[in-house]
Amino acid sequence: MGNAGHVRRPRGLSACALAALLFVAGAFGNMPVPAQAAPTPPVEQVGSTIVTLDPARGRGDYPVYASAELQAGSASARQALVIIHGRLRNAADYFATGLALAKAAGPLGEATIVVAPQFLDSADVTAHRLADRYLRWNADWAEGRPAQSPAAANPNNPPASSYDVLDDVVAKLSNKASFPQLQRIVFVGHGGGAQMLARYAVVMRPQSGPAISFVIANAGTYLYPTTARPQPPDCQDFNKWKYGFDNPPPYVGDAGKILHDFAARDITLLLGAEDRKSNGILDQSCAAQAQGRNRLERGRNYLDAMTASGMAPLLKHAIVHGAGHDEKKMLLATEARDAIFATGAAAR
To answer: Is 216:271 a contact under the CB 8 Å cutoff?
Structure first.
């Protein structure tokens, strides 16, 4: 990361944001790796379309559901909706939600292709007797961790990250020969998928190509690029990755560039007005509690923190009234459709 004293202030960042940048530049220390999420049963379905990761990003194949082949492309598609499943890895269900979203959007949806990548756990690969080349994780794909296997071609490099897979999807959609009319890629996630995108939206490696937007619905926790928290933390590891930047995965790059790029990202937070439960599958760790008591409060707190610091001046949000922690109620709501298809009534 270099010496924090030599980080230059990116243009457009406030003094508070610069202070956070300097913290991040020195925060990538040797902190303990966070505990992984509890395992879930193997998936019922594995996507039948198999995509090979670009060798520049690592080794391995990953399944997707898609309304247009990523290699063959589409001559007419103007937007891509990349929808990310939750902790159950049920990409087929999320693909169906994405198709329903596109259908409900009318003419805008007709020019939209839907892509639902699937991040498998080792149990899925075993249960479905999949080949060794399939990328698999250990319930930590949402955190951008390196895959359990296959190993990298170069033993000095880590295996591919789940974020490398998202980068690969962006690169394939950005191929002008395959998608000559594509103008926008929008990532959409709810719950566990929203947590993945809440981190990826901060640290993703920019690529040339269509504009990229994020619609993040009811994330359980967020990645804070600063040590400030809404609630005073009662633990020393409150800033560990995935909550902060201590001991990040190998995918994460230079702090100065991360904050500069994050400030320019088009991100909309969707918050269910009734997503107020503080139990169940909600992360109740000390680090999570420092962000708020429930998903609604944590989302509002994150929005306030990022906008007040100047770190994310383009960050928007919408409250979906009558919706709790419900994927379909959230993603099929008018507020989601406006953000996903940029119809002009964007979230406030």
So the answer is: no
